[in-house]
Amino acid sequence: MIRSKPDTRALPAAFYRLAFAALVLAAGFALAACGKANGDNGAKEGAEAVPAVPVEVAATRRAEMAAIYTGTAPIESERKAFVMPKVKGEIRAVLADEGARVRAGQVLARLDGDQLRLEVALAEATMRKLERDYARNLELQQKGLVSATAIDNLKYELEAAKATWDLARLQLSYTEIRSPISGTVTQRLDVVKVGNTVTPVGGVIESADSSLFVVEDLDSLILRVNVPERELAKLSVGQPAELAFDAVPDRSFAGKIALISPYIDAGTATFPVRIRVTETGGLLRPGMFARVAIVYERKPDALQIPRTALLDGDGPPKVFVVQDGKAAERSVQLGLSNGAMIEIVSGLKDGEQVVVVGQGAVKPGAAVRIVNTPARPAARQAPAAAAG
Fold first, then answer.
1. Which of 298, 314, 348 is the last residue of a domain?
2. Which residue has the higher pLDDT, 276 or 148?
3. Within a domain: residue 312?
4. Which of 38, 98, 214, 366 is the most buried (most CB within 10 A)?
5. Minimal CA–CA distance to 215: which of 175, 236, 186?
6. Are 113 and 197 in contact (CB under 8 A)?
7. What's the half-sphere exposure (Cβ side, CA atoms, 13 Å) at 157?
8. Residue 116: which H helix or E strand, with range?
């Protein structure tokens, strides 16, 4: 019996679909297994490849810390005289100019005074006549020829004549315009020239605009600083101040608080503080603009960090400290503040490294990489000399 070869063309289509599905399923399992293996390795490699955050750090240091209030004010002379004419007259001589050093009582300018000299002569003649009359009548009164009332009237007339003579001589002395204080002539009015006539300005407060000369003592310089009322409890008379001037760069000058006004301006919430310059070096002049730093507290051995190390945000102040290559968040208690540095009362120790740049990208416990070389501070540092 002869068997015929099966005809594959007669197999049903469902058979082929079933075989194809089995093949696809096997391939899927194989790919999934490979992907799982590769995925585990990749995750592990990715975890190992997370980079450390680059930061800059600074080490805590101990040094003198001074708490300072800063402000600005123009410098002025404490002893300043506006020299005004006291009588009318034509200028006959100008004896001092701007920049001249003068002593108290020195003549700065001289007026003509011709009329006043005549008035002195007239007053003196009247007084001499009354002196003779009084002397003759006094003799006659002793003989009983003149009454006591007449003698008294002559005495009063004589005293009035003497006062008139003294007043005339005083007015004549005003033709010599003198400096009331010792100092330097800082201003001379342009009208002060030979031949010009000057007249007293009555009822006007003396000022540089109405005075012939301004004389100032350049060794008695002060500043008037308006300080916010919140600083009132921190300041006291005698506290030192450091002064800096753009006109004298690279040099500081010493001063101290001479007066604290008890009055607080309600409009500006400030009170005036007068600072006396204790060191001028002969370089300072009235009108110079000063930057004032009033030192109201000093600590010779304060633990300090840069202000930039403080983290932004609400709540108590915090910093990041680098420990074993990781950032640890630390709460700190602040003390005095002086410009770029701030005192740490508690929360940090000597020599610890705090993050000062890059902390915005740092999370607590994150790995960090220090990109600078902070100088390790000395255990003790000599305090700076106190101002003033």
1. 298
2. 276
3. yes
4. 214
5. 186
6. no
7. 16
8. helix 114-142
When computed from its CA atoms, the radius of gyration of the chain, rounded to whole angstroms, is 47
CATH number of domain containing 148? 2.40.50.100
pTM of the complete model: 0.62
CB 228 within 8 A of CB 263: no
**Residue 358 in this model has a pLDDT that exceeds 50:** yes
pLDDT in tens, 163-198: 999 999 999 999 999 999 999 999 999 889 999 999
b/e sequence 18-49, b meaning 16+ C-beta within 10 Å: eeeeeeeeeeeeeeeeeeeeeeeeeeeeeeee
Range of the domain at 196: 86-216
The number of C-alpha atoms within 13 Å of 360 and in the hemisphere containing its C-beta is 3
Q: Specify whether 262 is located in the same domain as 333.
A: no
Residue type for 2, please? I
Separation between Cα atoms, residue 113 and residue 343, nearest integer Å:
70
Residue whose C-alpha is closest to residue 84's, from 120, 115, 59, 108: 108
What is residue 41's three-state secondary structure?
Answer: helix
Residue type, 179: S
Measured CA to CA, the distance from residue 113 to residue 31 in angstroms comes to: 123
DSSP labels, 193-217: STT-EE---TT----TTT-SEEEE-
Tell me the torsion sign for CA atoms 269, 272, 273, 277. Answer: positive
